[in-house]
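Archive entry: two folds, one per protein. Generate the first.
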Amino acid sequence: MWSTQAEHACRAVLQAREQAPIPADRIPQHTEVGARLRALTGFDFTLAGGPVANKRFLGAMARGYFHAVQFVRHPAMPMFTPEPDVIHDVLGHGIHLSHSQFADIYRLIGQTVTRIDNPDVLQMISDAYWFTLEYGVLDEDGRPKAYGAALLSSYGEIRQLHRSTVRPLDIDAVLTTRYAISGYQPVLFAARSLEEVTDILRAFLTRLDDDSAPPGRTHT
């Protein structure tokens, strides 16, 4: 994955990777990575046995915890996994959480979730998280460059960015865009910089409350 990331990841990710405590010669352990993350940004992994509800999963990020799993993707699907695994969590989110600017975005999302109880609004936040911290790209030198953790940890999908429809990052568009849970994303959203991602998310998150009305949306 390192050489593939070097070709297809954005500059902020490559900078974060330089200080990320992630070995390149073996599957890393959450404990060894987490100890270094605490020193870098105050984040740590907390282990989960499976899917975690939006309120708990996203809200934990306000306290500096990221829910991670211990299993590895099936050998029959090395290019892509439809659900998170240790490779996704460590090679994707572990790189993010080594970098203060990424870590601040995680905390911003988590802090918003702690004051929201409406499940529809929590889903709106989850959708914004999906198209940014999981599947976000930046427009660098006229090409989409990955920063989303799901892209960074998918050897197959990160090399197919040019096949997706790439649109400017716009939260209203994000919240009404169909996305794929079990395959490569047909649509990605690009910002011009990580600063723009932060600004767009902050403007969206700060206006949310339990009465915010979610738009119609379908998942596949």
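Generate the second and append.
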Amino acid sequence: MGKRSGLPAILMELALMLLVFSLCAAVCLSVFAASRRTARESGELSSAAAWAQSAAEAYRYAEGDVEKAAALIGAEAAGNGFARYFDGGWAAADADEAAYTLTLSQTDAACARITVAGGGKALFFLDVKAVVYGG
């Protein structure tokens, strides 16, 4: 009599396993993409914080003298503050090629705000006050 073949059931099971594998691969790829983005953002934040801290230490060492602090970190003094520009790898760059910008703006006598920005947004900011001795 008619013997039924098990081939359609095997093909259905194989198609289902392929679908499950595809879904798992899609989830894994999205997790890897998110982790790469998080690692990049974490690296940006870490570098921004380190450079802001360096600028704050230079400002405090210079006792609130913006020009002296700018010279200490290799920045360009301008008005009541200074700016330093970085490329994508946090190496010194010209203003027109900069991916990141560190700015220090003096807000009051011996007080300043340091901002590190990149990609059109502020990544990190820090308020600093210098102690001025003997005067």
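Annotation attached to the second fold: Helices lie at 7-61, 66-73. The radius of gyration is 28 Å.
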